[in-house]
Design a protein that fits this description.
Helix content is about 45%, strand content about 15%. By secondary structure, the protein is of the alpha/beta class. Helix 1 links the parallel strand 1 and strand 2. Helix 1 crosses helix 9, helix 4 packs parallel to helix 5 and helix 5 packs parallel to helix 6. The chain is globular. It starts with 5 loop residues before the first strand and ends in a 9-residue tail after the last strand. The chain binds nicotinamide-adenine-dinucleotide. Nicotinamide-adenine-dinucleotide binds next to helix 1, helix 5 and helix 7.
Length: about 250
């Protein structure tokens, strides 16, 4: 077993997950990086860039066979997992009268079942030795936004899962917390903006909603995640940290 602490991050090929992976690597962790987008994963995290401390694995976080194989490859390579960051996510827009049952199932599978699956396979590796799990939820867990029914439900579910796991696995020395980002500049945000009739005025409205006067960056979220996974947070478990530039401070 390596002496180096090891993190497994889902969805690290882009956006917030990429920022999280960079933060852990800077701190000297080895990183197992699991993403469905094989090309982007290998472009960003292939051996030419990263060397021996990174293990990129392509797969679907909603498929248990892929998850099981990834966790066993991680243990085979590094012998330990100290932190798990359940970050992979998608947004399928629509009200309940617009979404199909298949869209609902995919939204919940990628955003929520994936966290269950990775936790299911990682908890036995952490039990006894201890570890930290950080789930990426959203301000959508607490506040509804128009036309986001399945996404909002998936992110609220992530909070329930976080609390349940913190309760059940505290005695195993495993801490479980959630980070709830507000608007963060990533490909996912760009994808949402591109669906709106007037992208520029929507962006102005979004900026106006942030008392800090800017949209967040992947690094803003990575710092919060790293803190929650670190020993500095050793008495923090079962909680949700909102990182949104005070956007939700007024109540929405
Ligand atoms: N960007 C925001 O404003 C924002 C706000 C709140 C919460 N979030 C949440 O943060 C997380 C990351 O979002 P982002 O903005 O970086 O998104 P992104 O689309 O920029 O990146 C998501 C990454 O997850 C990967 N992914 C998607 N489905 C996957 C699957 N089935 N299996 C494995 N990997 C998969 C993608 O390939 C991509 O690399 C998501 O859970 C999202 O809901 C984002």
């Amino acid at each position: 077993m390596t002496d180096t602490r090891t993190v497994l991050v889902t969805g690290p090929a882009k956006g917030i997950g990429r920022g999280i992976a960079e933060r852990f690597l800077e701190a000297g962790y080895a990183a197992v990086l699991f993403d469905i987008d094989r090309d982007e994963l290998l472009r960003v995290w292939g051996p030419s860039r990263t060397g021996g401390s990174v293990l990129p694995i392509a797969g679907d976080a909603a498929e248990e066979d892929d998850v099981r194989a990834a966790v066993s490859q991680a243990i085979e390579r590094f012998g330990r997992l100290d932190a798990l960051v359940n970050n992979a996510g998608i947004e399928i827009a629509g009200r309940v009268d617009q979404l199909t049952a298949a869209q609902w199932d995919r939204q919940i599978a990628v955003n929520l079942k994936s966290a269950f699956l990775f936790s299911r396979h990682v908890v036995p590796c952490m039990r006894g030795r201890g570890g930290a799990i950080v789930n990426i939820s959203s301000v959508h867990a607490f506040y509804a936004y128009p036309g986001c029914a399945a996404y909002d439900a998936s992110k609220a579910g992530m909070i329930g899962l976080t609390r349940a796991m913190a309760l059940d696995h505290g005695p195993d020395g495993i801490r479980v917390n959630a980070v709830c980002p507000g608007y963060i500049r990533t490909p996912l945000l760009e994808q949402w903006l591109s669906t709106l009739p007037d992208r520029e005025s929507a962006l102005r409205e979004v900026l106006k909603a942030h008392p800090l006067g800017r949209i967040g960056t992947p690094r803003d979220i990575a710092e919060a995640v790293f803190f929650l996974a670190s020993d500095a947070a050793s008495f923090i478990s079962g909680t949700c940290l909102i990182v949104d530039g005070a956007m939700t401070a007024p109540g929405h």
